[in-house]
Amino acid sequence: ARGLRAKDGTREADARLSGTAEGGILKIQRLTLGGRDGQAFARGVLNLSTEALALGVSGRISDLAHGLWPWAVEGVAGQLSFVGMIGGTLKAPAFSGRVRGQALSVKAVRLGSVEGPVEVARGRVASRGLNLAVGRSVGVLAGEAKLPPLPHVTGNWQERLTLALKLDAKGRVEDFSASLPRSLPLGGPFILQLIANGTPKRLTGSGRMEVRELRVGAERLESLHASIGFEGSGLAVRSLTGRFRGIAFRAEGQLGLSGSYRFTLTPVTLNLATLPLVPGLGGTAVLSARGTGELSTPQMEGELALTDTAFRDMRVGDGRLQFTMGESQ
After folding, report:
1. Which of 196, 329, 181 minimizes the C-alpha distance to 255?
2. pLDDT (tens digit per residue) in 91-147
């Protein structure tokens, strides 16, 4: 058959079948289905009375944005290949095999490459462990996703996708910084563990993250440990501890999927004599700060409460210094 069309008439595919039928059994020697952006091959048997399937299949889709005939899956890009078996029936087929994806992305968010075992049945996609790679970063993703019926995978299909996932990953922060809505110069090695359930925009779950020598622009944080959770449409940082220029700090906050952020720094006591800012300065200071805004244009405001401040042999005394930092400052 040539020129098979999807219901909207925008996508075409060709199908070719060679085989024999005998005693109610169709023996498929070769079935080919494909179009401009992908092809799939199958061979095996079909019971014409029960519609039971037993097929070996393989295929490759060179462009996920257009090649998932007859469906249009918006927001997804990349290449996908697969090999395995299809069982079940014509009305309820089930796939078990391995997949490999390359240059994958969803809504312009870079996902890199994926490889591993997959099972698909009745709208459920599950894996015991998919190997992920983005740049120098690697991870293992296990769990399942429940999809809406494939003919309806259009428009806001991600909102009807439900997930139950576990992720273990390690690598470099800079492999993912380009996926932010506006790029921020981040870098450094990380370890990440996450468990999440829900839809992509309404995830619940928890995890932890550790970053050594995190670079933010020209600054460097010596260590960073975070306890995180998913709340609504953002990532909640329930506890963040680290060291910056030898000073320990603690904070909490939230990071939105759009790149918005909010944070509060727990007051930190500083020994002014140990800081290289002003030679000869002495006394103590308590630093508190908070910030809200966008990661691409970070802003912060805070206060320094000074006690027994002195400069060389001159006593300055106590006081408070308020400050703001931002793109326009």
Report:
1. 181
2. 999 999 999 999 888 776 778 899 999 999 988 999 999 999 998 999 999 999 997
Contacts of 224 (CB under 8 A, 6+ apart): 209, 210, 211, 212, 214, 240, 241, 242
What residues contact 24, with CB distance under 8 A and at least 6 apart?
Answer: 47, 48, 49
- pLDDT tens figures, 241-256: 999 888 899 999 998 8
Closest by Cα among 305, 214, 318, 301 to 265: 301
CB 35 within 8 A of CB 60: no
For residue 152, give the amino acid letter.
Answer: H
Residue 301: both structure tokens together: 């405001």
Residue 143 in contact with residue 118, Cβ under 8 Å? no
Residue 85 and residue 101: Cα distance in Å, rounded?
Answer: 18
* HSE-CB for 84 with a 13 A CA cutoff: 18
CB atoms within 10 A of CB 91: 6
List, for residues 207-254, the tens digit of each pLDDT value.
999 998 888 877 888 889 999 998 766 789 999 999 988 889 999 999
